[in-house]
Queue: 4 jobs
Job 1
Amino acid sequence: MGKDFDIVIQGASGITSRLVASRKATMVAAAKNPRVLDRLRSPVSLAPGFEGPKQPSGNKPMVDDALGQFHGEGIWVAPFVMAAINTKNVHRSNFLPGQAYGADFVCDAMLITGPGAKGERSPRPWRSTGRWAAKAGRSELSAWPPAPG
C-alpha cells in the first residue's frame, strides 16, 4: 500500500524566461512529431511499460477537499503550468526504485489560489503546492495555512 503525502510549498511564483523557452521548444517538437503529443498527454510516459491508476487531470480550478477548510471555506486550486512536466518526473522517481510509493501512486500539482469565493476567482496563487497521494487516501493538514519551513 502506498504512503500519503501532502506537501505545500510557499514561494515566489511567476513565469520565467526558461519556462517560456522550454514551453516553446516543446511545442515546436510536438508540431514536427505528433507522437510527442502522446508523451505529453501521459503522466507516466517517463516510466516505460507502466500504466498505473487513472491520474487527476489537473486542468481546471476546483475546491480540493484534501486541503481541508480555512475559516469554514473550501480551498481552491488551479492548474499549474509546469504540472505536466513535474508529475512525469515524480512518476519516474517512483518507477525507478521499483514503485517505492506504490503501484497505486497518484500525483498531481496545482496552485492554491485561496479559500472561498476569493480563491475561486483569483488568477494568482495563494500558495503553490505539489500533492502526492496514494489511492489509500490523503492526510489532512492540521492547520491552515501551514507554518513556513
Job 2
Amino acid sequence: MSKHLCSYCKTVIGKKLLSKNSPAPDELVSLINALTRKDNEGYCQTCLPTIIKKEEENTRRAISEIIDAIPVITIHTPQSWNYEILGIVTGQSTTGTGIFSDIESSISDFFGGQSVTYNAKIAEGETRCFSQLRAKASALGGNAVIATDIDYSELGTSTGMIMVCASGTAIKLMNIEILGEEKTRRIHRVQKMVNYLNKINSDGAEVIGKIDSFIYNCVSGY
C-alpha cells in the first residue's frame, strides 16, 4: 500500500498539515495502531475519530451478543458461591403499548384470555433491564448479579406506557467455575472486552485531545 494513502479511507493523504485529509502525526498513528491492534502505515486526521467510534461500536456489539452469560438471579445467598459484593445495580425500561394493544388487551380480558401483546411488551422490558444489570455489573468488575428484584407499573391511566424496573447486587464470583465451563469461558470473554472498551474510551479521548492540540499548535504557528 502506498504510504501516501490513508489506511482507513484509502484516499490520498494531503501534504499540508491543515489541508483536507492532512496526515496524522506519527505519534497518533502509533496510538491508533496499538488501539486497533494493527500495523498500518498512516492515516489522515479526518479518519481518526471515525476509527475510534467504529472500534467502540464493534466492541459494544460483540459484548451484547454474549453478555447474557452473566447470571442474574433472585437468590440472595447462592449455595456454594464464594463472592465479593461490589454494589447495587439498577435497570429501567419504559415501553409504549399503543392503542391497538389496549384494544387487544380489552378483547383478551373479555374472553378470559391473556394479552399476548402486553406480555410481549413486558418481556421486552425485562430483557432490557437484565441487560442493563449485566452491563453495569461488568463495568464494576463483576461477573454475576444476585438478589434481583423486578417491579412493574403503568405510567398513568391514559399514557399507554409500561415501566419495568429491576435492581440487584453486583458481585465478583471467585469460584466462577461453578457455573460450568462454557459459561465461564463466555464470562471471561465479556470481561476482556469490557476492559478493552475502557481502553478505547481512555485512549480515544487521548487521541482526540492530541488532534485538537496539534491543530491548535499548527494554527498558532501561522
Job 3
Amino acid sequence: MNEPLDDEIASLYWCPYPDEAYARKVGWPVNTDGTITTPGIGHVPSRELCEIAELEGLYGETGRTELERLYRLEDKRPIKRRHVGFTGTRKGLQSCQKLELAEYLVYLKGQGFTHFHHGDAIGADAQAARLAKQAGFYLIAHPGHLRKKEDTRFRAFTSFNDEVREVKMVGVRDRDIVDETEQMIATPAGRTEEVRSGTWTTVRYARKQFKAVHIIYPPK
C-alpha cells in the first residue's frame, strides 16, 4: 500500500461529493462500491470513499495527478475553498435567527467553508454578512437591482466585502449565488413556504440544483 498523504497536504483536500447520510436523506442510491448515484451527474464517489482513499494512501505520490483530476483542481493546486451562500428577507433577522446563524457559521468554518456569498441587500443580507465577517469568512457580495438597472433602493452597500460582483437583476443575482456555492443558508420571514417570496424562490432553485439548504426559521 502506498504511503498516506502527509497531514499538511491531506488537510487541504476536501471532497466535493455528498456523504452517504445526505444521499439517503434525499433519496439518492448508495451503491455497494461506495459510490452514489446522483440525478444528472451519475455515479460519483461518496465523501466517505474520498476520505478512505486519502487515509489509506490509495493515491500516494504516483497517483497525485489522478487525485487532482478527481477534485477538478486548477494549476495543480489542492482545493481548499468551500463556498456557502445566503438568502434572507429585507425584514431582517429575528434575534433567535441571528444567534442560530452565528453558531452555524462557526460550525461551517470548522467544516472547511471559507467563502460567504450574499446579496448585499438591506435587512438579513447585511446582518448575515457582518456575522460571516466576524466568523472569518471571505465575503463576496452579489448586489442586485430591480427592473430598472439604476433602481438599487434595497441595496445595503456593505463596505466590508472582499469582492463585489457585477450588479444584476435580483432574480439573476440570487441564482448566481446558488450556482457559485456548495450550500445555501436561508432565513425566511415565516415558517410556511410562500410563492411570491424571493427567499423561498431561491430555496426552490437551490433544491432543483441539488444543493444542500439549511433553513433557519423564525420562532413560532
Job 4
Amino acid sequence: MVSLFQYRVLVNTAKVADKMEKEVASGIPIDVARNNNALMLNNTATSHIYFFMLRTFADECSNKEYDPACRQVLSKLCSLMACADLMEGNQWHGLLREGEIDLIEEATSTLLTQIRPEMVSLVDAFDYPDNLLSSALGKFDGNYQEALLKTAKVNTEKFHEPSKPPRFFAAVEKFLDKDYLALANGPVPDSMKIPLVPAPTSAPNSKL
C-alpha cells in the first residue's frame, strides 16, 4: 500500500518536471513556468506529504515494542487512512483500474466496521480534557446522555433570562430608531413606511 503512494509521487513528479522542462526549453521563464504549473506542483507536493505521513504511520504500526492489540487497531486505522485518499485524493487518475477502485470501496467498508467498536478508545487516546472540548459529547466519564440533559436544562434557563444589552449599546443608542426595533421583524405600520420615489424616466432620444 505504501509503495503505491510512493509510485503516485514518482509518476506525478516526472509529469510536472517534463512539462516545466518543455516550457523552459521553448523560451518561457522559469518563474512563469512555475506559475503555469502551480496547481500540479501543489498537488504533487501534497501527494508527497501524504506518502511521508502514511509511511511513517505504517512504520510505527510495525514497531514490536508497542502493545500488539494497539498495533492491530492502529494498523487498521492506517489502512483506512490510505483507502480514504485512494477514493477521494488527487492524482490517482490513470494509476488505478476500475476493478481496483471497487476493491478499495469494499475494503473501506470492512475497515469501518472493524474500527467502529474502537472509536471511543481512539478518540480518548488524544486525551483532550473536558474543559477544552467544551461539549457534552466525548466526556471522559462517558455519561454523555446525562450531560446533554443537564446542558439542555441550563441553556433553557439562560434562554428565558432577560437579556442585557451589550456594553457598546450606550455609544450607539442615540443613533437607533427604537420604535422600529420594537417591531421585532413584525409588520411595519403605514406611518413608519418610507414612501418610494419613482425613478426618473429619461426622455426618448429623437436621434435614435
